[in-house]
Design a protein that fits this description.
The chain is α/β, with parallel strands linked by helices. It has helices at about 15-25, 40-45, 65-75, 90-95, 110-125, and strands at about 5-10, 30-35, 50-55, 80-85, 100-105. The chain has a single domain, classed as Response regulator (Rossmann fold, 3-Layer(aba) Sandwich). It has a five-stranded parallel sheet with strand order 2-1-3-4-5, sandwiched between helices.
Length: about 130
C-alpha cells in the first residue's frame, strides 16, 4: 500500500500557488516541486515520478496550455490542474478540450485548489 503523500509539481511564475500550498503539502505528506518555466516542467517529469501537475495557464513562454499536449504525451495518466488569473471562457474552453483534470481560477482561493489536488492525488495513486 502506498503512503498518503505524493509528488506535486507546481509550474507558475511568481510562485504564489506554491507559497499558498507549502504548509498544506507538508501536512499532507506531499513533496512539493516548484518551477517557473516549461523546460523545467519537462526536465522534472523525465527525472521524477510526479503524481499531480499544477500548471499556470500563462507561463512566461505563454506556452502553458499549448504544452499540455506534449506533457500528456510524456505522462499519459498525469492529472493536470490548470490555474488561471482571470476568467477567460475562450481560454478555459481550449484548455478543457486538452483533457485536463481541473481548471482553477486563482480568485477562488486555495481551498478549492487543495481539494482538487487531493482528488487528483487519489486518482493518480490508484
Amino acid at each position: 500500500m502506498m503512503g498518503k503523500g505524493g509528488t506535486l509539481l507546481i509550474a507558475e511564475r511568481g510562485n504564489e500557488v506554491g507559497e499558498d500550498l507549502k504548509t498544506w503539502a507538508r501536512e499532507n505528506g506531499h513533496q512539493l516541486i516548484c518551477v517557473d518555466n516549461i523546460k523545467d516542467v519537462f526536465m522534472t517529469l523525465q527525472k521524477d515520478r510526479v503524481n499531480v501537475l499544477v500548471l499556470d495557464a500563462c507561463l512566461p513562454e505563454h506556452m502553458g496550455y499549448e504544452a499540455i499536449s506534449i506533457i500528456k504525451g510524456l505522462c499519459h495518466h498525469l492529472p493536470i490542474i490548470v490555474t488561471a488569473d482571470e476568467n477567460n471562457p475562450e481560454l478555459e474552453s481550449r484548455i478543457r478540450q486538452k483533457g485536463i483534470f481541473y481548471y482553477h481560477l486563482k480568485s477562488f482561493g486555495p481551498d478549492e485548489l487543495m481539494l482538487a489536488i487531493s482528488n487528483a492525488m487519489e486518482r493518480s495513486s490508484q
